[in-house]
From TrEMBL:
PANTHER family: 2-KETO-3-DEOXY-L-RHAMNONATE ALDOLASE, PHOSPHOENOLPYRUVATE CARBOXYLASE FAMILY PROTEIN. Gene3D superfamilies: Phosphoenolpyruvate-binding domains. Keywords: Lyase, Metal-binding. This is Host specificity protein. InterPro entries: Aldolase/citrate-lyase_domain, HpcH-HpaI_aldolase, Pyrv/PenolPyrv_kinase-like_dom, Pyrv_kinase-like_dom_sf. SUPFAM superfamilies: Phosphoenolpyruvate/pyruvate domain (SSF51621). Belongs to the HpcH/HpaI aldolase family. It comes from Spirosoma radiotolerans. Residues 19-233 form the HpcH/HpaI aldolase/citrate lyase domain. Pfam families: HpcH_HpaI (PF03328). It comes from the Bacteria. One of its GO terms (molecular function) is metal ion binding.
């Protein structure tokens, strides 16, 4: 496991921008790295990416200098373990709505004494053939791993004060589309009530000293969010490509 540059930046109150990608092609991750993005988040929820494909995507991230993160489809400790053992440096868990779910995530991600993650000689620890012994790696991994919970429904909003007390969660990332659906707005998050709710959630997260994150479709949106204290901004790979393509096609007139 390498130093988690994204977590270091966030701890220093510096924003990070990256992409959520449902591609299982390592070349896509490699291109994102060379493009200068801070992180590449493998979407293990809304995609067919398998755990056997993750380690090659992570290798491509390491080669091109981008931090590999993953959204895992289920709060299943064995599934989370496979992503982390492959070398992913942070986990974003969708639909965390209760304290019990947040605590289960912490238990799955961290080694003892913080959590209950199982240990084996794997890619993440250089198969114990590198410079760190088991004890050194356990301490290092617990320090470097980034843990993010997604706020995506009304239940999470209702439980937010309690969620913000759970130790081991570095930050909370708001999923605007699912949150809007949960609030009864099935056509998207562009409604004033949804915007006000998101603004209130961001403010609470910041006051609790945790990292606030959400989606940004453009650089201008990301800048506006950062000005409000959102440090973790992500776009979809498809959205990023669409924005760049639209701008490029303006040249056709």
């Amino acid at each position: 496991m390498k130093q988690n540059i994204v977590k270091t930046r966030l701890k220093n109150n510096q924003p990070v921008l990256g992409v959520l990608s449902n591609s299982n092609d390592p070349t896509v991750a490699e291109l994102c790295g060379y493009s200068g993005l801070d992180f590449y988040m493998i979407d293990g929820e809304h995609s067919s990416v398998t755990t056997s494909e993750v380690q090659n995507i992570v290798r491509a991230c390491e080669l091109s200098g981008i931090t590999a993160l993953a959204r895992v489809r289920s709060n299943d400790p064995k599934l989370i373990l496979q992503f982390l053992d492959a070398g992913v440096m942070g986990i974003m868990m969708p639909a965390i709505s209760t304290v019990a779910e947040a605590e289960a995530l912490v238990q799955a991600v961290y080694y003892p004494p913080v959590g209950a993650r199982g240990f084996a000689p794997v890619r993440a620890n250089d198969y114990l053939l590198g410079s760190m012994n088991q004890g050194e790696f356990v301490a290092f991994a617990n320090e470097q791993v980034l843990v993010l919970a997604q706020i995506e429904d009304k239940e999470a909003i209702d439980n937010l004060d309690d969620l913000l007390t759970v130790e081991g969660i570095d930050g909370f990332v708001i999923g605007p589309r699912d949150l809007a659906m949960s609030m009864g707005y099935y056509d998207g998050p562009g409604h004033d009530e949804v915007k006000r709710t998101i603004a209130g959630v961001v403010e609470k997260i910041r006051k609790a000293g945790r990292i606030a994150g959400t989606t940004a479709a453009t650089g201008d949106q990301a800048r506006a969010l950062i000005d409000r204290g959102v440090l973790f901004c992500l776009n979809s790979f498809a959205g990023l490509l669409k924005t760049a393509s639209t701008d490029f096609m303006k040249g056709r007139g």
